[in-house]
Amino acid sequence: MHGDLDSVYATLLHLQEVEKIKIDLLICCGDFQAVRNEKDLESLNVPSKYRTMNSFWKYYSGEKVAPFLTIFIGGNHEASNYLWELYYGGWVAPQIFFLGFAGVVKFGNVRIGGLSGIYKANHYYSGHYEKLPYNEQDIRSIYHVREYDVHKLMQVQEPIDIFLSHDWPLGIADYGNSQTLLRQKPFFEQEIQEGTLGNRAAADLMAKLRPSYWFSAHLHCKFSAVVQHGENGPLSKFLALDKCLPGRNFLQVVEIESQTGPYDLHYDEEWLAITKKFNPIFPRTRARANFSDAKLNIEECRQFVKNKLQMRGSKPFEFVRTAPCHNTCQSAANNFPSGEYWQYLTAKLPFLVSHEIPFNWFSSNEELATVE
Description:
Blueprint: H1 5-19, E1 25-28, H2 56-61, E2 69-72, H3 80-85, E3 90-93, E4 96-98, E5 102-107, E6 110-115, H4 121-124, H5 138-141, H6 147-154, E7 162-165, H7 178-184, H8 189-194, H9 200-209, E8 213-216, E9 223-228, E10 235-240, E11 265-267, H10 269-278, H11 298-312, H12 330-333, H13 341-348
Parallel strand pairs: 1-2, 2-4, 6-7, 7-8, 8-10
Antiparallel strand pairs: 3-4, 5-6, 5-11, 9-10
Helix pairs in contact: 6-9, 10-11
């Protein structure tokens, strides 16, 4: 979407009226650009001429409300400082939900998983070492996929209906009409021949999770494929779409089989249990995560999460603004160096800190106070 929410929502509203259909959910596969104010632009890795506010800030400020529930993952052109505040996922604005650096949620009974960022081998085994304020190297590395997040997703056992990645799974071009793809993007030919076009970690996840649908973006063209997992195995239908520009294929309406509504967003019990198990080894340096140190029992984690969800319900925590918004609070935004609103809030207002899910859900120290 590259921040152009107004155009996408207007197109969907028009389509809904003309086709006499009802859109239940909008999914965006990265480069969403949740830019709240001018300071956020400093964490956006784009050439300076593209560092514009676009329209997300209107939805963040409350001037507008998204007409459709929207779920998105991160790409390689994001306000990374804001998405880091919601590493585990959460509302970036009313009706607009970030799936996290890795995450799984339920929309009704439809299970949606996703992996933010793009694959770069030189950062894959690093921890999430970047810290605010980001330098020029940090804003180019923070969105690189990390082994830690992929490893958590590889633990998922229950069926996934839809999975999202920004860049394509490695080798997916072999399962669709590659000749048509090359007519659109002839410079892909060498990478396809060498087997390097795509995300190696995403390919591993597709083989493991075998979702019914896999949606991607990044390469700015429409491409579809069907992957069969093993002989007579399940199918994964792959679809990538173009960027949001006039005359481009940037939207596709898909009907997904599901139970009768209501279609509300809920936390996923299995995913929270996996997150709790591996949170004690969360890597915040360049060192590789040591998975053998994740000693919490997964069944005990699952029961812990189940009890929590029974007490408070499974709907995500409400949206809370954590930084000034464009225009009306412009002067206040300039009082914060390099967009470090989150550090300010955690220092001055510690009771606001939740990362959308209370820290003590995942901490090995059960005596931590619940922060909601």
